[in-house]
Protein: TetR/AcrR family transcriptional regulator
Organism: Streptomyces luteolus
Amino acid sequence: MAYRKTPAEIRRLEATRERLVSCATEVVTEVGWAQASVSAVADAAGIAAGSVYQHFPSKSALAVEVFRRAAGREVEVLGEVLHAPGDPVERLSRAVEVFARRALQNRGLAYALLAAPAEPAVGAERLEFRRRYRVLFAEVVRDGMTRGALPQQDDEITAAALSGAIGEVLVYPLGDPEKRAVDTFIAELTAMALRCVGAPRD
Amino acid sequence: MAYRKTPAEIRRLEATRERLVSCATEVVTEVGWAQASVSAVADAAGIAAGSVYQHFPSKSALAVEVFRRAAGREVEVLGEVLHAPGDPVERLSRAVEVFARRALQNRGLAYALLAAPAEPAVGAERLEFRRRYRVLFAEVVRDGMTRGALPQQDDEITAAALSGAIGEVLVYPLGDPEKRAVDTFIAELTAMALRCVGAPRD
DNA sequence: GAAAGAAGTGAACCATCATTCAGAGCTTCT
DNA sequence: AGAAGCTCTGAATGATGGTTCACTTCTTTC
């Protein structure tokens, strides 16, 4: 045998792949899925368009990877907050705040994940992640009902409503972003979410 | 002058245009915006692809017309119910029911209007119609607050949340459509909407 | 240093549609 | 009937952008 990938070479290839994914994420964040052409992404990563195909079998596969990474982080964070011990209402409240703060911190990415027009493969992935959000929310709602902290309700409908409501409010933030203080905005959003699950009023 | 459109001829052309719009709506309902190519739509209407351009300057213009017609009907219906005289909570409740029933009656169209991937021109139109939904919901929420029927809240956030929540619940109806009785589903959805605005509990 | 094999390049290729257009077929009016 | 002007057709055109591939460049091994 005259050639065998050396560990350093493997690392270098993996690093290139990582860079490709993260540059693609940036491009998508900035210009959306539709405008993120293979050559734009390749340029951003400093490689030729053809080289993308050394790392991914198709543009779709790269797009799905980008989506999974970014969406996966969000689901993970949300899951941690929601699975923390303690009062379900308190956990939901914190989860909404964390989710909203992260989305407002990186609006471009939030929009890309939640609502931006995308090719079918990414759309399918989005469905899957929405499902995960619903599962997480449904758990905390069920928990609240079990503990008697929340009124009886259809946990799956409430969960879908929560993810839809929060997404809509965050994606089309109302009015001038500067005008409305972020904290006030988040407080109102959280209050809405708590009303939505029927949490006891103060 | 040797030729002038006769009234009958004008009617015939308008009828063709109407047929084109309604056939396009059907195609979009069935296969979504992405798959609704000019030739597919023309075939459905029984005309040649080129003839579409006798009635619309571009595919986008036709798509926008299709969207406006269908979405306009929904906004109108919703507006009528929400503007009826009477208790705001009652009006909201009826509005959610009407909206949901119509959406479930024609899921394909509901999906096309609310969430299906679409070209930018349709996306822009969708934003405009979402804004109209928000305006309608915000009005009823304000009305409720004024009358003391609803707790103080940010009407715009609640309105966005309502439209997002209802849309999400309807677009990804949970489980088998047959399994869950439509009436139960709608009752739960309505209950959620009322909690969301903080309506007094029974 | 040279052979073997992999990665990287980017211009050419190709598929997909929206759009155009030259000609065929109608309708209107004299 | 015939001229004029319109609608309709559908194959050709054109733009876009993902994908391929012959070639170059780099790495490894001996």
Observations:
- Chain A has nine helices and no strands.
- The two ends of chain A are 75 Å apart (CA to CA).
